[in-house]
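Morning, I've got a small favour to ask if you have a moment. Here's the protein in full, and shout if anything looks odd to you:
***
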Amino acid sequence: MNRQDLRNRKRIVVKIGTTSLTYPNGNINFRRFDRLAAVLTDIRNSGREVILVSSGAIAVGAKRLGLAERPRDIIGKQASSAVGQAILMQYYEKSFNEFNQRVAQILLTKDIFNYDHKRANVKNTLSRLIEMGVIPIVNENDTVATEEFNEFSDNDTLVSYVTELIGGDLLILLSDIDGMFTGDPNKDSSAKLISVVESIDENVLRQAGGSASALGTGGMASKVQAAAKVNAVGCDMVIAKGDDPSVIYKITEGEDVGTLFLRRQP
């Protein structure tokens, strides 16, 4: 496959992490919200379909509550999410409204995907919103997701489920790192960015590490696992740095940015 083939992808799922929406001190990066809204609206205006999976509720809530760091206990995360999710959607509504783009909030728990009728309901809702020109904004329902059977480990896992459910053909993960490297770039100065991963084998899995951020939860390991899941159902995935949402243009125009995980060919 040539990266130029990404120009033909029509249903695009974008996941943005907490660290791409906030400053290192945990404060909200409002310009990042505005730029993301502009880019996604423009992508949708071009005739493509867009679904956004957004992290950030717990971090935003923790900041509003005056907490020094992201809570680690379940009740603290629930409380922060309850406060933060409402604020997060206010920011998105304001930013997207500047471009006359309608958005909708979808909150999910993992157990939904274990029941055919619940899966069908979510899929039908997402499909109808897309048909109506709305950009769905999906997040985990952290306020009620407290047990192993209904809690996603992170939003990299959540977005892989959503992408498979909705039949996305390109998944873009915007993170705090440029892509996948041959080693940990924070520890190994010789580590090099991997442009394309043709298949996920044991070597690729060994190269994946953990989260380096105090705000985020997902690391490279969870991103590689997400790639394996969506690649298996015919969806390409790109990991790229999210400090400038305009990188989405470069990806969808076939430029060599980030790390591309190739979908499995039939």
User: Anything to note?
Assistant: Strands lie at 11-16, 49-54, 103-108, 135-140, 170-175, 196-197, 236-241, 259-261. The helical segments are 30-45, 57-64, 74-97, 116-131, 155-166, 202-207, 220-231, 247-252.
